[in-house]
Specification:
Blueprint (H helix, E strand, L loop, with lengths): L2 H51 L5 H17 L2 H12 L5 H19 L2
Helix pairs in contact: 1-2, 3-4
Amino acid sequence: MDFVALLTAFGVGSLVTAVIQFWLSDRATAKKRIHDERKEAYIGLLESWVMYESGQSNKQGEYTVGHWLLRSQLVASEATLLLLDKWEQTEPGSSDRIRATKSLKAAMRLDLCSQ
């Protein structure tokens, strides 16, 4: 066997392996970043919603809920985004809001578990 051909074959194989490993690593990093962004936004929204609903801070609470709602809308999946819009359109404390919140929490759970 020709030494140069053998060396070339191993060199190309190593290069292909390195490219595939880089691609897989980059993909895993991107998925983790998306998961972390969603987790932070969803938890922030739910915590601010609880504080607002409990009446701890009215004007500031409204601002905080709006802030986390917008952040959640930026990172949410399509299904969760639709439920966020539905949730936003309901009246706080109403039975529609309670149902929308239940559906929204289930969709958020799916978003966070599917990563």
